[in-house]
Amino acid sequence: IERENSRYFNVCYYVDRTGQVKARYKKIHLWTTEAKYLSPGNEVCIFSTRFGKVGIGICWDLAFPEFFRALILNGAQIVVVPSYWTFGDPEHNFAASRKVMRSFVDSLCISRSFENEVVLIYCNAAGKLDVGDSHYETLVGHSKVATPILGTVKKLNHNNQALCLAEVDLKILNKAENMYRIKNSIAQSSFAKSLKKTR
User: Fold this and answer.
1) pLDDT at 163
2) Which long-range contacts (CB under 8 A, 24 or more apart) does 177-183 make?
3) Is 98 exposed, middle or buried (0-12, 13-18, 19+ CB in 10 A)?
4) Considering the entire predicted model, what is its pTM?
């Protein structure tokens, strides 16, 4: 959480292997409880790296297809999504079944990867905070790397801390575009034209 003047934002940084800060992103789609305290960002974040063009999302951004559309229209090939996704929310008196919530997270990741022809790197927090209720502060985990065509190429099927490494050839994105033609269709869509007008 970072303060700018009198407003607070949920912020993520991309730091490269030399220690240089390559990007700073302020979360756009706030979860309902954090929206009471934080302000949303208003710009997508795309930047060049040695791996390719990278975009950043944070947690609940994953639930918004139009957010990913904006990233790919700006050239993102890889989207990194750090997250703090739990099995429930005490303010809403909500605790999902663990099977359902794991399936929800898994399906969002693979869907966003396929429907946007991007490599999606989902980095969820793991473990449990000792705050009294095991549902509300137990993290879903399930960090993964998802690609179009190949699907999930690496996944942690648990919510323990671990290192998840995967090697992905970005040529898979060209193959996906040749098969699905999604990016080309999006670029020609009325959504893309309206997005360009609002920039």
Assistant:
1) 93
2) 177/117, 179/149, 180/114, 180/117, 180/148, 182/115, 182/116, 182/117, 183/72, 183/116, 183/117
3) middle
4) 0.90
